[in-house]
Write a structure and sequence with these properties.
Helix content is 30%, strand content 29%. α1 runs antiparallel to α5. It contains five helices and 14 strands. By secondary structure, it is of the alpha+beta class. The mean pLDDT is 88. The strands form three sheets. The chain has a six-stranded antiparallel beta sheet with strand order 1-2-3-4-14-5. Bound molecules: calcium ion (4 copies). The site of one calcium ion has 5 residues, from loops.
Length: 223
Amino acid sequence: MKKIISVFFLFILSPIANSALIEHAGYSYDDTGNVVVGGGLEWLRWDVTDGQSIDQALSTFGSDGWRLANNVDMANLFNTFNFGMSFDTDENTGSYGWTEKTDDEGADELDRIFFAMFGITVTNPGINPGDDPFEMSAAYFGDDADGDGKYNDARVVDDFVNKGTPSFGLAMISADVVSSSHAHTNMGIALVRTEGYSVDEPTTFWLFIFALVALYSAKKRKN
Ligand SMILES: [Ca+2]
Ligand SMILES: [Ca+2]
Ligand SMILES: [Ca+2]
Ligand SMILES: [Ca+2]
């Protein structure tokens, strides 16, 4: 019985023991899952919905409490990450800023931290061998409060080399880019839900209760 109990505790604790927490500016990501937490919201990693349209992503994940990130959510995320300029909350305003001007690919670079949290939605190798590849984490999002059927596009791009010419990394929000039925292989969908919404917690809770009951009956038998 003791052995069974130990196995149970190992099973319960293993996801915690193996996980690594990535943190930046109040946002955190436990790399055993698909959810970034920050600013009062949970964000589904953008590579999870890579290649889907807004309509597809909402029909797949909407029942788990996910909704499309609006322009305030996205401006808050990009402004809090602090890419070096101010992003607008208006759905008809695009903005962009440089994230880096030199290439050292350090894990502490803003683009690398963002990729680690939200996932990379496209990697294209350079045209020449040894070129720094094009890497991007990108997603469609938006309110469409003006009812024109157009949604927005957010992307974080690492510095890369294009036909021998170096390009800077950047963070960018573009306005009125796509309809809700448009899908692109390089783009995910930015879905958010209220922080604390979790479908995993009940499972962990009941496993914990089960282990406690097992412990109690083992003790009782011993006595
Ligand atoms: Ca518009
Ligand atoms: Ca970089
Ligand atoms: Ca619109
Ligand atoms: Ca690079």
